[in-house]
Amino acid sequence: MSSVAVLTQESFNEHRSGLLPEQVGAAVAGSSDSVDEDNLPTYKDAFPPLPEKAASPEGPQEVGNVWMSKIRPLKSSIITQVFHVPLEERKYKDMNQFGEGDQAKVCVDIMHKTGAHLELSMAKDQGLSIMVSGKLDAVMKARKEIVSRLQTQASATVAIPKEHHRFVIGKNGEKLQELELKTATKIQIPRPDDPSNHIKISGTKEGLEKAKHEILLISAEQDKRAVERVNIDKVYHPFITGAYGKVVSEMMQETGARINVPPPSVNKTEIVITGEKEQVALAVAMIKKVYEEKKRNATTIAVEVKKSQHKYVIGPKGNTLQEILDRTGVSVEIPPPDSSSETVILRGEPDRLGQALTEVYAKANSYTVSSVSAPSWLHRFIIGKKGQNLAKITQQMPKVHIEFTEGEDKITLEGPTKDIQIVQSQIEAIVSDLVSRMDYAEICVDPKFHRHLIGKGGANINRIKDQYKVSVRIPPDNEKSTLIRIEGDPQGVQEAKKELLELASRMENERTKDMIIEQRFHRAIIGQKGEKIKEVRDKFPEVIINFPDPAQKSDIVQLRGPRTEVEKCTKFMQKMVAEMVENSYSVSVPIFKQFHKNIIGKGGANIKKIREETNTKIDLPAENSNSEMIIITGKKANCEAARTRILAIQKELANITEVEVSIPSKLHNSLIGSKGRFVRSIMEECGGVHIHFPTEGSGIDSVTIRGPAEEVEKAKKQLLSLAVEKQTKSHTAELRAKPEYHKFLIGKGGGNIRKVRDSTGARIIFPTAEDKDQELITVIGTEEAVAEARKELEGLIKSLDNVVEDIMSVDPKHHRYFVARRGQVLRDIADEYGGVMVSFPRTGSQSDRVTLKGAKDCVEAAKKRMLEIIEDLDAQVTMECVIPQKFHRSIMGPKGARIQQITRDHNVQIKFPEREDLQGCVHTCPFYDLAPSGEAQVQENGEANGEIKDPAEPVAPKKCDVIVLSGRKERCTAAVEALKALVPVTIEVEVPFELHRYIIGQKGSGIRKMMDEFEVNIQVPAPELQSDIISITGLATHLDRAKGGLLERVKELQAEQEDRALRSFRLTITVDPKYHPKIIGRKGAIITQIRTDHDVNIQFPEKNDENQDQITITGYEQNAIAARDSIQAIVDELEEMISEDITLDSRVHARIIGARGKGIRKIMDEFKVDLRFPQSGAADPNLVTVTGRPEMVDEAIDHLLNLEEEYMADVVENESKIAYMKPSVSAAANPDEPRGPSKGFVVREAPWTTSSEKAPDMTSSEDFPSFGAPVTAAKASPWGPKRF
After folding, report:
1. SS3 per-residue string spanning 1077-1122
2. What are 115-140's pLDDT values in tens digits?
3. Angle between helices 417-437 and 388-396 in degrees, nearest 10
4. Does this model's pTM top 0.85?
C-alpha cells in the first residue's frame, strides 16, 4: 500500500496565511531570507502517516495517531437465544404432528410477525427447544410470542401501594413494556380511577416469578424514597437556585436528593424534594438555611428603568440576570411584560447592592433604539436583492437589529450604542444616495388593461424594465387597484411612464368585437397544437384573439385591437369559417347492409377511390351495427357526387327501384314518429326499403322510397294509407308486453302482426333495440281500429302470460341436433316463440320425452316448429360434390363468407375434406375433368346413375376433392349448383411484354389494386419467359370486368409511353460558367421558377465535367425552347453588366454587411447590384467588387462611399476612446519580465532533510512513475518502503 501526499492551492494558501504581509510579498518576490523557520509546519503535521498494524512479540499493538481517533470496534447486531418449553407446559402435545401441525404454523406466523428466525427441536424429555436468531428487539418480541402462544399460561396477582404503580408503568409505559419483554408475561395494572392495588400477571410459571420479583423490587425501592414540599417565598428562589443553577446543583450532588425549583415564569412558591428519607431531610435543612440567611441579611432597593430597556437587563434567555447574580449575589426582579410598571427591584446583601445597581444601569443603557428617515418606496432598494445590501451591514454589526415597517417612512435600529451610530450613518448614506439618483412615478390605468400591459409571459413589462432600468409594480387582479408605480432612474422613470401611458391610451382606443362562431369549429380554427391560430395571429399581430373555455359551451370569439386590423381579421376568420361550413356539409345515404362490402371493395379499394376522387370523408357503420346509413362529409357538391356513385354501385348490384310519393310536409313529423319509430317499422316490415323524408322546414312534399320493386310498392301503399289516416282521424294507444313475447306476437316474417293489422286496419309498432322502454308497444289508426287491435293484442298477451307445460316425443337420434353448439337451436326457438323453455333428457338416456314450458300459444308454435325440424332431419340426404382441392379456398371466400352464405340461403350443411398433399391428388381420370363443360360430378348417397361405384377403383374421386352436403334433397341440389358456380375459371389476355412491369407497379401495388378491385387473381409470366400472355383467374361473373380493366390499363400505359417519348426532347445551351450562379439564383429560386413555368428539367454541368459551359434542358420541344429563351434573356442581361472594384476600409465592412447580411441584402435589392467583399486572408482586405448595370453600379458605389465616411467617423472616435482608457491591472504588469524562482512549499523535519537522501525529483519517472509505464528496480527512498 502506498501513501501519496497531494498539495493543493488551498492548502498552500492555508500554510502561507500565517505569514506577515511583508513576508508574503517577500515570498512572492523570491526572497528566502524573510521566511521564519519556526513558523514552518513539520512534515508529520502537513502529511500525517496512515495507520499501520505491525506484528510484535507481545501481540498486536494499536498505533495512536490522528487517523485512528474516530475508529470504533463494530459489534454484530444479530444475537441467538434458546428457549425451552417443558412437556407439561406445552400447548400442543400431539407427538405425531411435530413440524407440521398447529405448532409449526404458529412458529411461521411468529417469524413473519417479528422478523426473527426460529428453529424447533424436540428434547428427550419431550420438551420443546426453540432457537431464535435476529436483532435483539426482534428476539425479545419473538420470545414473548412463543411464551404466549406455545406455552400454557398461568396467572397471579401482586399487591403493591397504589402510588407505586406509576413507577412500574414508567415514562410513556416504557418500563412496563420492558418488563413484559424481559419476563415474557402480560402485566395488567388497574386504571388510576380503580381503587384496587392488585397487579395481575399472566404467563409461564418461570415468567410469573420473575415478573413478581421485579415489581416487588420497584415497590421496595420506592418505599425507601420520600417526597417533601417546602414553601419558600418566590423572591428567594434565585438565591436557592444560584447563578446558572450552581447552588441547587451542589445541594443535589451533596445530598443525592432531587430538588425541583419552579421556574421564574411559573408563579408557585413550592419547592419539591424527592429521594431517600435521609437525603430529603438533609436537602430540606440546607434549603431552609439559605432561605433564613437571605431573609435575615437581604435588603431591597427599587429603581425606575424604561420598559423598553427591561429586555436588555434580562438579556437573552435571562443570561444577564444570571450574570449579575453570579457577580454580585444580588437578585434582580423585573415586572412581567404585560405589566405597565417600570420599577425594577434589586434584592441582596447591602454592600453588594451598589455594584448590582451599576451593572443594571450599564446593561439598560448598553442598547439604544434609533430611527432613520427613509421613504417607504426606497426600503426594498436599501434591503437589496435577496437582502444583499443589508447583509453587508449586519455582518459587520451582528448585534444591531434593523426593522422596516411597511407603509412607514422610517427604519428602526436597535442595538449597542456604539454600533447603532455606525449603522445609522451607513444607512443614512445609502438613503441620501438613493434619493439623489432615484425617482418614482405613479400612473392610473384601468385594471382591465393591466394584463395587456404585462404581455404574454410578462414580455411587455420585462422589456420596459430592461430598456429603462426601472422597477414597475402592477397591482394583482384581486386588489382591483388602478395605481401603477414606477421606480428607478429619474429619466428612465419618465420614459417608462410615457410608454406605459401610450400603451394604455392605445388600448383605450382599441376596438373589441365579438364573433359568433359555432363551438364545433373552434378546435379546427385553433389547429393541432395551436398551429392554425398562430398563423392568423402572425398575420394580424396587433389583434388579440380570445376563444371561450370549452366547458362554457359558448360560440363567442373575442377580437381586440386597432379598428382596421380587427375588421381585416374578422373578414379573414369569417372566410375560414365559411370554408369549414362548406366542407362540413353532411349527407346520410341508406345502403342495404349486404352491399356495404361491395361499396368498400377488396382491401377498401372502392371506398378509397371514391374518397380521393370526390375529396370527401365517408363513414360506414360497424359490422356488428344494425345501421344501414353511410355518412358522407365534405363540400355539398362533392357529397352529392359521392352519394350518386355509392347509389350507382348499389343499383348495379341489385334490382333497386326508386319512387317518389307526394305527402303534405305537415304530416312528415307524425309519419316519422318519435325518434323515427313509425317510419322504421314500415322500413323493417317492407323488407328493409329506405324511406327518405326531406329536411324539416324545407316545405318539400316528395318522399323518396328506394329498394326492391315489390317492397317499394308495398311501402308506398302503407305510407299513403297512413297519411290518409293522419289527415282524417288518427288515434294512438299504448300497451305493454314482456320483450320476450314480441317476436311471437310479430310472428315469422311478421305473419301474426299482419293478421291483426289486416283485420283491424291499425298499425302496430314494436320497440327497437335502441329504445329505452323495451316493453312499450304503440298502436296507431282510427279510434275503432286502435280499440279493436288493442283488444286482440291484450288477448294474445294474456294468453302468453298463462304458462302451461306440454310433452312431446323426439327420437333420441335427433337430440344432439337440438342441444349442439350449446343449445343454439333451442335458444333460437325460445327467442322466436316467447321464451319457451325446452328440456331434453340427459345425455346417455334413451328417453324420447321432451318437455316444453311457456305460454300456451307459444308452446304450441314451438312444438310445431320442432316437428318441422324433425321432419327435415328425417328427410335429410347426403350428397357429394367433387371439385378439385385447388379451388376449395376460392369457393370458401374470405373467412368462409361465400360458403356461409350458401349454407344460410339453402339451409344445408357443407363439409370440406381435410387438406392433403396435392401431389397425391393428381386428377388424371375424365371423371374429374371440369372442362369443357365445367361441370363437377355429383353422387347421391354413394350412387351415380343407379350403379354403385367401388371407391377402390382408379376412377373413384380422391377424398381431398369431395365436398359433402347434408340437407333436404332439393336444397342440396341447389347448393351443389351454387358451389359449381363458385369454381374459378381462367382466361388469357395478350399484353405487350414491355408493359408488364408497369402493370405490376412499384412493389406489386398496381397489380394488387386490380386484383382487389375486380376480385380476381392475375398471373404475370416470369421476365425470363418473355411471354405476352397474362392469365386472369376468378369467378366467371368477374372475368369480363377484369379483362376490360386490364385492357384499359394497357391503353393508359401506351398513351404514357407516347407522352414520355415527347417529353424526352433534349437541347443544350452554351453559357459562360461565371453566369451559372446568377441563373440558379439565391437558394435556386430563379432556376426553380424557370423549371416550374416551362415544365422542364434543367441540368447544370458537374464540377469535373469537361463541358463546363453546357446547360442541358429536357422536356416537351416547345417548352424546352421557351426555357432556353428565358435563360438566354438572363444571360443577355448579365452580359450588359459591368464590375468595378472600389477600396472600402475593412474596419467598416462588418457594419455595411449588417447582422446576418441584412444590410448588404438591402443595398443589393435597392440598387439591383451584386457586392463581393474580400475573404479573410485576402491580399487586399479593403477591395470590394460591385457588379450590375453601369448606372446602378455608379449609384451603389456612391452610396457605399458615403456609408464608409459615416462609419469611419465612429471607428476613429472609438479608437481614440480606447487609447485614453485606463490600462487594466494585468496589462500594467510586464508579461515579459522574468519572475524569480519559486521555492515551492517548505516543511521542517522532512525525511530527506534528516538523512543523506535528496528530496524526490518531481520530473523523475522512477520516483513518480506514470500509469502503465515500466517501473525500474526499486531502491531505498526517503518516502519509506513501497507497499504495493
Report:
1. HHHHCHHHHHHHHHHHHHCCEEECCCCCCCCCCEEEEEECHHHHHH
2. 898 888 877 667 788 889 998 888 88
3. 160
4. no
